[in-house]
Amino acid sequence: MTTYVFSPAERPTVTVFASEQRFPVRRVFCVGRNYAAHAREMGGNPEREEPFYFTKSAHAVTASGATIPYPAGTGNFHHEIELVVAIGKSGFELDQNAALELVFGYASGLDMTRRDLQSAAKEKGRPWSIAKDIEDGAIISPIRPVAETGHPKNARIWLAVNDVVRQDASIDDMIWSVPEVIAHLSRFYHLAPGDLIYSGTPAGVGPVVAGDRITGGVDGVAELTLQIE
Fold first, then answer.
1. 13-228 maps to which CATH number?
2. Of 31, 61, 62, 150, which one is least surrounded by beta carbons within 10 A?
Protein backbone atom coordinates (compact mmCIF):
# COMPACT_ATOMS: atom_id res chain seq x y z
CA MET A 1 0.00 0.00 0.00
CA THR A 2 1.39 3.38 -0.99
CA THR A 3 1.71 6.02 1.70
CA TYR A 4 2.46 9.68 1.13
CA VAL A 5 4.33 12.37 3.03
CA PHE A 6 1.20 14.49 2.55
CA SER A 7 -2.08 13.97 0.69
CA PRO A 8 -1.70 14.26 -3.09
CA ALA A 9 -3.40 17.26 -4.68
CA GLU A 10 -6.76 16.59 -6.25
CA ARG A 11 -6.60 16.30 -10.03
CA PRO A 12 -8.18 19.29 -11.81
CA THR A 13 -11.31 18.54 -13.83
CA VAL A 14 -13.54 20.46 -16.24
CA THR A 15 -17.32 20.40 -16.57
CA VAL A 16 -18.75 18.68 -19.66
CA PHE A 17 -21.93 20.15 -21.15
CA ALA A 18 -25.13 18.16 -20.50
CA SER A 19 -23.27 15.51 -18.49
CA GLU A 20 -22.58 14.62 -14.89
CA GLN A 21 -19.16 13.37 -15.98
CA ARG A 22 -16.11 15.60 -15.72
CA PHE A 23 -13.03 15.84 -17.92
CA PRO A 24 -9.83 15.16 -15.90
CA VAL A 25 -6.96 17.44 -16.94
CA ARG A 26 -3.60 15.84 -17.68
CA ARG A 27 -1.51 18.56 -19.37
CA VAL A 28 -2.04 22.04 -20.83
CA PHE A 29 -0.30 22.99 -24.09
CA CYS A 30 -0.58 26.51 -25.51
CA VAL A 31 0.16 27.58 -29.08
CA GLY A 32 2.10 30.84 -29.37
CA ARG A 33 1.32 33.55 -31.95
CA ASN A 34 -1.21 31.56 -33.96
CA TYR A 35 -3.02 34.60 -35.40
CA ALA A 36 -1.09 36.88 -37.76
CA ALA A 37 -2.46 40.15 -36.39
CA HIS A 38 -1.62 39.11 -32.83
CA ALA A 39 1.91 38.13 -33.87
CA ARG A 40 2.35 41.63 -35.28
CA GLU A 41 0.97 43.36 -32.20
CA MET A 42 3.48 41.41 -30.11
CA GLY A 43 6.30 42.66 -32.33
CA GLY A 44 6.75 39.44 -34.28
CA ASN A 45 6.31 38.33 -37.87
CA PRO A 46 3.60 35.79 -38.72
CA GLU A 47 5.08 32.74 -40.37
CA ARG A 48 4.24 29.14 -41.20
CA GLU A 49 7.61 27.53 -40.61
CA GLU A 50 6.56 25.64 -37.49
CA PRO A 51 4.21 26.33 -34.59
CA PHE A 52 5.73 26.78 -31.14
CA TYR A 53 4.36 26.06 -27.69
CA PHE A 54 4.52 26.83 -24.02
CA THR A 55 2.82 24.96 -21.19
CA LYS A 56 0.77 25.71 -18.12
CA SER A 57 0.35 23.53 -15.06
CA ALA A 58 -2.85 21.52 -14.87
CA HIS A 59 -3.56 23.26 -11.58
CA ALA A 60 -3.69 26.61 -13.41
CA VAL A 61 -7.02 25.45 -14.90
CA THR A 62 -9.92 27.43 -13.42
CA ALA A 63 -13.60 27.26 -14.32
CA SER A 64 -15.48 30.01 -16.10
CA GLY A 65 -17.49 32.10 -13.65
CA ALA A 66 -14.67 32.30 -11.13
CA THR A 67 -13.42 35.38 -9.32
CA ILE A 68 -9.63 35.46 -9.21
CA PRO A 69 -7.19 37.82 -7.51
CA TYR A 70 -4.97 40.13 -9.50
CA PRO A 71 -1.72 38.11 -9.49
CA ALA A 72 1.42 39.02 -7.60
CA GLY A 73 4.51 40.27 -9.34
CA THR A 74 2.93 42.13 -12.26
CA GLY A 75 1.59 45.54 -13.15
CA ASN A 76 0.39 44.51 -16.62
CA PHE A 77 -1.98 41.53 -16.49
CA HIS A 78 -3.41 40.64 -19.94
CA HIS A 79 -6.36 38.65 -21.30
CA GLU A 80 -6.11 36.28 -24.29
CA ILE A 81 -9.26 34.51 -25.54
CA GLU A 82 -8.72 31.10 -27.17
CA LEU A 83 -10.42 28.06 -28.66
CA VAL A 84 -9.47 25.10 -26.44
CA VAL A 85 -9.18 21.58 -27.82
CA ALA A 86 -9.85 18.74 -25.36
CA ILE A 87 -8.08 15.49 -26.26
CA GLY A 88 -9.97 12.27 -25.59
CA LYS A 89 -7.84 9.58 -27.29
CA SER A 90 -4.15 8.71 -27.40
CA GLY A 91 -1.98 9.42 -30.43
CA PHE A 92 1.63 9.83 -31.50
CA GLU A 93 3.25 10.93 -34.77
CA LEU A 94 -0.12 11.51 -36.37
CA ASP A 95 -0.99 12.46 -39.90
CA GLN A 96 -3.17 15.58 -40.18
CA ASN A 97 -5.99 13.48 -41.62
CA ALA A 98 -6.14 11.42 -38.44
CA ALA A 99 -5.57 14.25 -35.97
CA LEU A 100 -9.20 15.21 -35.38
CA GLU A 101 -10.00 11.63 -34.32
CA LEU A 102 -8.30 12.47 -30.98
CA VAL A 103 -10.65 15.36 -30.16
CA PHE A 104 -13.18 14.80 -27.39
CA GLY A 105 -14.59 18.30 -27.56
CA TYR A 106 -14.02 22.04 -27.55
CA ALA A 107 -14.20 24.88 -25.03
CA SER A 108 -13.48 28.57 -24.80
CA GLY A 109 -10.49 29.57 -22.68
CA LEU A 110 -8.44 32.46 -21.37
CA ASP A 111 -4.66 32.40 -21.38
CA MET A 112 -3.98 35.04 -18.70
CA THR A 113 -0.51 36.56 -18.95
CA ARG A 114 1.86 38.69 -16.90
CA ARG A 115 2.78 40.72 -19.97
CA ASP A 116 5.50 42.82 -18.33
CA LEU A 117 7.29 39.68 -17.14
CA GLN A 118 6.91 38.07 -20.56
CA SER A 119 8.43 41.12 -22.27
CA ALA A 120 11.35 41.14 -19.83
CA ALA A 121 11.94 37.42 -20.39
CA LYS A 122 11.93 37.87 -24.17
CA GLU A 123 14.51 40.65 -23.97
CA LYS A 124 16.83 38.41 -21.96
CA GLY A 125 16.16 35.25 -23.97
CA ARG A 126 14.66 33.52 -20.94
CA PRO A 127 11.68 31.13 -20.66
CA TRP A 128 8.17 32.55 -20.28
CA SER A 129 7.06 30.27 -17.45
CA ILE A 130 6.69 32.91 -14.75
CA ALA A 131 4.68 35.06 -17.19
CA LYS A 132 2.38 32.31 -18.45
CA ASP A 133 2.13 29.54 -15.86
CA ILE A 134 0.06 31.56 -13.39
CA GLU A 135 -2.17 30.30 -10.61
CA ASP A 136 -5.74 30.61 -11.95
CA GLY A 137 -4.21 31.54 -15.32
CA ALA A 138 -5.93 28.99 -17.61
CA ILE A 139 -9.63 29.80 -17.50
CA ILE A 140 -11.95 27.38 -19.28
CA SER A 141 -15.65 27.09 -20.09
CA PRO A 142 -17.47 23.76 -19.93
CA ILE A 143 -16.35 21.42 -22.70
CA ARG A 144 -18.84 20.75 -25.47
CA PRO A 145 -18.32 17.25 -26.92
CA VAL A 146 -17.47 17.09 -30.60
CA ALA A 147 -20.42 14.76 -31.12
CA GLU A 148 -22.61 17.76 -30.30
CA THR A 149 -20.68 20.61 -31.94
CA GLY A 150 -18.80 18.98 -34.77
CA HIS A 151 -15.44 20.62 -35.45
CA PRO A 152 -15.94 24.41 -35.37
CA LYS A 153 -15.25 26.31 -38.58
CA ASN A 154 -15.46 30.00 -39.37
CA ALA A 155 -16.67 30.68 -35.83
CA ARG A 156 -16.43 34.09 -34.23
CA ILE A 157 -13.98 34.33 -31.32
CA TRP A 158 -14.41 37.40 -29.15
CA LEU A 159 -13.70 38.99 -25.77
CA ALA A 160 -15.04 42.03 -23.94
CA VAL A 161 -13.92 43.78 -20.77
CA ASN A 162 -16.74 45.50 -18.89
CA ASP A 163 -18.90 45.00 -22.01
CA VAL A 164 -16.42 46.76 -24.31
CA VAL A 165 -15.27 44.41 -27.10
CA ARG A 166 -11.49 44.14 -27.40
CA GLN A 167 -10.88 40.95 -29.37
CA ASP A 168 -13.06 39.99 -32.34
CA ALA A 169 -11.99 37.58 -35.09
CA SER A 170 -12.67 34.17 -36.63
CA ILE A 171 -11.00 30.92 -35.67
CA ASP A 172 -10.35 30.46 -39.39
CA ASP A 173 -7.77 33.24 -39.02
CA MET A 174 -5.44 30.84 -37.20
CA ILE A 175 -2.10 30.40 -38.94
CA TRP A 176 -2.03 26.74 -37.89
CA SER A 177 -5.37 24.91 -37.94
CA VAL A 178 -6.46 22.55 -35.17
CA PRO A 179 -5.53 19.36 -37.10
CA GLU A 180 -2.17 20.87 -38.06
CA VAL A 181 -1.44 21.75 -34.42
CA ILE A 182 -2.45 18.31 -33.13
CA ALA A 183 -0.37 16.51 -35.78
CA HIS A 184 2.66 18.71 -35.17
CA LEU A 185 2.45 18.44 -31.37
CA SER A 186 2.17 14.66 -31.65
CA ARG A 187 5.65 14.58 -33.21
CA PHE A 188 7.06 15.53 -29.80
CA TYR A 189 4.55 14.19 -27.27
CA HIS A 190 2.42 11.09 -26.87
CA LEU A 191 -0.91 12.91 -26.69
CA ALA A 192 -3.39 11.31 -24.32
CA PRO A 193 -6.87 11.72 -22.86
CA GLY A 194 -6.96 14.74 -20.55
CA ASP A 195 -4.61 16.93 -22.57
CA LEU A 196 -5.86 20.45 -23.34
CA ILE A 197 -4.56 22.57 -26.22
CA TYR A 198 -5.11 26.33 -26.04
CA SER A 199 -4.91 27.14 -29.75
CA GLY A 200 -3.81 30.79 -29.72
CA THR A 201 -5.39 34.23 -29.45
CA PRO A 202 -6.37 36.88 -32.00
CA ALA A 203 -5.28 40.53 -31.91
CA GLY A 204 -6.61 42.92 -29.30
CA VAL A 205 -5.02 41.55 -26.14
CA GLY A 206 -4.78 44.08 -23.35
CA PRO A 207 -4.61 44.75 -19.63
CA VAL A 208 -7.20 44.17 -16.95
CA VAL A 209 -7.30 45.56 -13.44
CA ALA A 210 -9.04 44.71 -10.19
CA GLY A 211 -12.79 45.15 -10.59
CA ASP A 212 -12.87 44.25 -14.29
CA ARG A 213 -15.29 41.66 -15.65
CA ILE A 214 -14.25 39.63 -18.69
CA THR A 215 -16.73 37.94 -21.01
CA GLY A 216 -15.98 36.10 -24.21
CA GLY A 217 -16.22 32.91 -26.16
CA VAL A 218 -16.28 31.03 -29.41
CA ASP A 219 -19.64 31.03 -31.17
CA GLY A 220 -21.23 27.60 -31.28
CA VAL A 221 -18.89 26.32 -28.56
CA ALA A 222 -19.29 28.24 -25.31
CA GLU A 223 -19.11 31.58 -23.57
CA LEU A 224 -17.14 32.30 -20.42
CA THR A 225 -16.89 34.93 -17.71
CA LEU A 226 -14.16 35.95 -15.29
CA GLN A 227 -14.07 38.55 -12.53
CA ILE A 228 -10.79 40.13 -11.39
CA GLU A 229 -10.59 41.27 -7.77
1. 3.90.850.10
2. 150
